[in-house]
Design brief:
CATH topology: Metallo-beta-lactamase, Chain A
Strand order of the largest sheet: 1-2-3-4-5-6-7
Strand content: 15-25%
Distance between the termini: 49 Å
Number of strands: 15
CATH superfamily: Ribonuclease Z/Hydroxyacylglutathione hydrolase-like
CATH class: Alpha Beta
Structural class: alpha/beta
Order of helices and strands: EEEEHEHHEHHEEEEEEEHEEHHH
Oligomer: single chain
Number of helices: 9
CATH architecture: 4-Layer Sandwich
Helix content: 25-40%
């Protein structure tokens, strides 16, 4: 009924799940949040504090009243997943917020994250949305099972690596795995894979272990934070390719940086290998210039080069 691969920006994935394109930076198919419906309705991630109107508009198109959303689950610490929570809660006054312990700490006090963004985004930090704090966050951890009613439950899966607080959610009835950013930044149109190695939270070895953990699940749908949903067999192919790409980046960055101690030469080598990708060209210029540099820096810090 829903096809083999989800290409539409705003889509019903299966009988219980929907995806919403938040149009991050005004660009389609960059960031995604999800809705899971049982007897209760859950929102997976919030987008940024600048994309909440798009989320609310699409919920309306899906005939979902924001006031009926029982719970918002934030998959990890970054602003494009948690910074919209406080703004959305103004329209969802009875909605609970759930997150891992490390993510909950940043949701309650995002000042550290904001300082890190300024440090690494440079001029582009102005395009990182404000991150208003969320006072009440309930902590969830690996192995917790969240009952939505109607035979729909979400299993909490720890997926550190992209960030220490990253979690996934597995819905066993439809075999849907919500991975946040634990897989990669992926664009199907260009078959573009970019490791999610933003500093200072990225840990390379832990990231690869989390990819292996995702592959151990009998999943049918893989719902990623960037961008969208893939259905088997493509879903697990994307996870495997993410691991291959991450290893390839490690080799290039390690070899070039050890010889030159120059992030610029690493940048040029990656462009030489992968090209100046058409997908990334759609980003605002400031973001486009800073993203690859940040991902390189994340590897350098994690690998202690």
């Amino acid at each position: 009924m829903w096809g083999d691969i989800m290409l539409e920006s705003d889509s019903q994935i299966n009988e219980n799940c929907y995806q919403i394109d938040i149009q991050q930076w005004g660009v389609p198919r960059v960031g995604t949040v999800y809705v899971v419906k049982g007897e209760k309705i859950f929102l997976v991630d919030s987008g940024t504090s600048q994309t909440t109107e798009k989320v609310l508009k699409t919920l309306e198109e899906f005939k979902i009243n924001p006031k009926t959303i029982n719970t918002m689950i934030i998959t990890h610490e970054h602003y494009d997943h948690g910074a919209g929570a406080a703004v959305l809660l103004k329209k969802m006054p009875t909605t609970m917020v759930l997150a891992s312990e490390k993510t909950a700490e940043i949701l309650r006090d995002p000042s550290m994250f904001e300082e890190t963004s300024k440090k690494y985004y440079g001029e582009a930090a102005g395009l990182v949305s404000p991150y208003p704090p969320v006072k009440n966050v309930e902590v969830i951890e690996e192995g917790d099972s969240i009952d939505l009613g109607g035979e729909i439950t979400l299993e909490v899966v720890a997926l550190p690596g992209h960030t220490p607080g990253s979690i996934g959610l597995f819905e066993s009835k439809t075999k849907t795995f919500f991975a946040g950013d634990a897989v990669c930044n992926y664009n199907q149109q260009y078959e573009f894979y970019m490791p999610p190695s933003f500093p200072e939270l990225f840990d390379y070895e832990t990231y690869l272990k989390s990819l292996d953990k995702i592959l151990s699940y009998d999943l049918k749908y893989l719902c990623m934070g960037h961008f969208g949903t893939q259905k088997q067999p493509k879903a697990k192919q994307v996870v495997k390719k993410a691991a291959e790409t991450a290893k390839d980046w490690k080799k290039i960055i390690s070899d070039v940086y050890r010889k030159t101690k120059s992030e610029e030469q690493v940048y040029n080598k990656l462009l030489e290998k992968y090209g100046d990708n058409e997908y990334v060209k759609n980003f605002p210029e400031l973001i486009r210039k800073s993203v690859l540099g940040q991902l390189i820096k994340g590897y350098i810090i994690s690998l202690k080069l």
